Amino acid sequence: MIELSAKLTTGTVYLAGEAIECCISFCYTAQPEHRNSQSHSDTLENLAWASAQFHCFYSTSGAQGDKTPILGKTTSLEVAACDVGDAVFHSKPKILFCDLTIPLGETKTFWYRESLPIEAPPSYRGTSVKYSYKITIATQKVGSHIKMVRIPFRVLPISPIINMQDLAALCGNETTEELHPTNPFSEERKVETPLTMALQVLQNLTARRSPNSYMITNTRGKVGRFCMFKSAYKLGEDIVGTFDFSVGTVTCMQVSVSLQPEEVLKTKSPPKNVNKETSSRSMTVARYHEVTLGLTQSQLILPIPLHITPAFEVDDVSLQWRLHFEFVTTNEKLVPNPEDKDWNAPLNVPIETMVWNLPVKIYSTLPKEIMHHTVGTDAYTLNIK
Questions:
Q1: How many helices (H) and strands (E) in the chain?
Q2: I want to staple 93 with a disulfide (CB 3.0 to 4.6 A). Which of 24, 35, 51, 282 is the partner?
């Protein structure tokens, strides 16, 4: 029996444009019932071939099979029945070996390395559409069926941050400096790539502080003032803001803030039961709630989960993020007089609820930041008999 072992050596999370790397091993081990009855012919095993490639799968909540491949060429590795959706693009299959002989007890190791397209859609599990990625490793013994193992991995978007074509042009222009005499005593300058420059832009965008203040009002007057210190965040960061109710003329009893995605479909033929022009559905991924009666100041701290998908836009769907505010207000003066020792809270209070949506930009973070806080499987095995 041959055991196929595959492990992602660079983790399970990647930015679009990065290279994935997988270590693939084939080990010939004797089955326990055959260890004492080995013949000379059983000391060698043969595999006809093995290949590796990655797929991006697309599916909708209403129907499947309505997409055609947009990248990559025809591959001999068909989509398995267990895979949900259609493969919208894939890399070219890379042949790991042909006609491999493995002696008993030995292991043969191969490496698969492939770069993801910079324009690739991110891994995304939305309410209407889904994108997922898997590495497909296939092999076959002579006279046997093809065996395949799928290794899922996650892709984060990078292209919406800046025009990647402009970055590529900037990187290409830097080669002109090589025509000038170089100093043999100076350190070699690192060559910038579109991906590294995009990461620098990402860092600058999310590190920049730009406080914005908003006066919150309803039909009866001022509720308060909200201040947010910046509008661009990375996955894993905290959205921080402050409420100032001392400027309000209307009593705010409680406030809740929810981080919600806004998914908009742009396909000409959307799934059934989905609005054709715009399909924006909201769900809460993080929530802040506080009773603010009697408070003049309050602070908002809302962690951004690492598992969500940052903002992105492709041909079929776009994803943005917003803060959804709900203020419960009343015109009653419920704050007791400090001199009144016998004050009791009223049994019934007339209230009004007002809502407000504030767009917020959420970008990718470095994959290693996500892998440090998540538990996942990066190794898979397959027995070939």
A1: 3, 21
A2: 51
Given phi > 0 = left and psi -120 to 50 = alpha, else beta, which region is 373? alpha
Q: Do the beta carbons of residue 20 and residue 160 sit within 8 Å?
A: no
Question: Comparing 2-157+368-384 with 210-333+345-363, is the CATH topology the same?
Answer: yes
CATH class of segment(s) 210-333+345-363: mainly beta
Q: Give the DSSP letter of residue 286.
A: E
The SS3 assignment for 91 reads: coil
Query: Among the ranges 16-25, 176-185, 376-385, which has the highest mean pLDDT value?
Result: 16-25
Residue 243's CB is within 10 A of a number of other CB atoms, namely 25
Averaged pLDDT score across all residues of the chain: 80
Using alpha carbons only, give the angle 241, 242, 245 rounded to the nearest 5 degrees: 150
What are 227-240's pLDDT values in tens digits? 998 989 999 999 99
Residue pair 348/111 in contact (Cβ under 8 Å)? The answer is no
Ranges of each domain in the chain: 2-157+368-384, 160-174+188-207, 210-333+345-363
Find the DSSP H helices in the chain: 164-173, 194-207, 367-371
Distance CA 309, CA 312 (A): 8
For the domain with range 2-157+368-384, which CATH number is right: 3.30.300.30, 2.60.40.640, 1.20.1090.10, 3.40.190.10? 2.60.40.640
- Whether the CB-CB separation of 225 and 255 falls below 8 Å is answered with no
User: Pairing state of beta strands 379-384 and 19-28?
Assistant: unpaired
Q: Is 121 exposed, middle or buried (0-12, 13-18, 19+ CB in 10 A)?
A: buried
The closest of 41, 22, 21, 42 to 30, measured between CA atoms, is 42
